[in-house]
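Q: How would the structure tokens look for this protein?
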Amino acid sequence: MTSTATARAATGFAGAAAPAVLDELDLALVDAVLISPRASWAALAPILDVDPATLSRRWARLSAEGAAWVTCHPGGSTPTPAGVALVELDCHAGSVARVADTLARDPQAVTVELLTGDRDILVTAAAPQGTALTEYVLDRIPAVDGVRAVRTTPVVRVHRDTGHWRPDALDRSQRAALRAHEPARAAPVSVVGFDRELLAHLAEDGRMSYAELSVRTGQPQSTVRARVRRLLDSGTAVLRGDAAHSLLGWPIQAHLWLSVPTDQAADTARALASFSRTRMCSSTVGAANLTVTLWLHRVEEVQRLEAAIVRQFPKATVVDRALALRVVKRVGRILDPAGRAVGHVPPDLWTDAPTDPRPRVRA
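A: Here is the predicted structure in token form.
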């Protein structure tokens, strides 16, 4: 097990001291859950060399504190086509926080961030179909009190999503052992029957036990287990572990917008997606045809990485860059200013109608 993550003295934006990072065991546990979100504590114990009871107790504390969590979202093999867009908002003076809070309560706003630079808010928006996304961008967002202007950039392909980022707290052999617990490969399936109810509960807690899922759905445990495995093995649903980035020792989130010649865009995207600091890399339609989200230790790393990208891809132009002042919502989780989860409004990409937009907030 590496200990580099625990030794970082990260500095927050504008030089403010970042919260203390998690200890070495917590970091290893989070890393393990990111790789294998539903692996049992008994399965994880020999890999992490810690007894199952300790792992269970540690995860319960991390979860209760909002420091780490597991959610569920549609996978790339979902039969229902989803539209995704990056939506930049300008707000009237004094209304940014209120607008962000309102947007975060909508299931079509997957992620909501307050940024530096030429936009006040960046929303990663998604809907089950392109028409639903158009309605959300053209009608519902502009109707939010305080919104002054809206600019939309369609996402045509996601080369790396946020679920692939790792804190690098485990060694190679540990990661290999954990991959043995990954879901089996199966053909895509449709979401039918009480699947949507199951998916809603897994979005709340991706590690929810089959016994609890059985109680909540009123279905036998054997039926629940089979349906959950069916959804996960087919890639129709994907479990995603996450954690408060500042507590992981990566307090800085940066966005780069790049313009790359069309014949080089695919190779550039693959290379950027492989960077260890890349959280997300997408092909987009606009003045910038690639967007990259990075997690960093310090602000000054932005310029170093930008310079490295331009050196490696001399025909790429960085059109714009911005830092996240605050992430209000990330992939359905409502976050406090420290990045801890305090509630959730999961993305609803299995139905056309918006779900109840009131966030479920931890007591």
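The longest strand covers residues 147-160.

Confidence is low (pLDDT under 50) at residues 1-18, 77-81, 352-359.

Upvote if useful.
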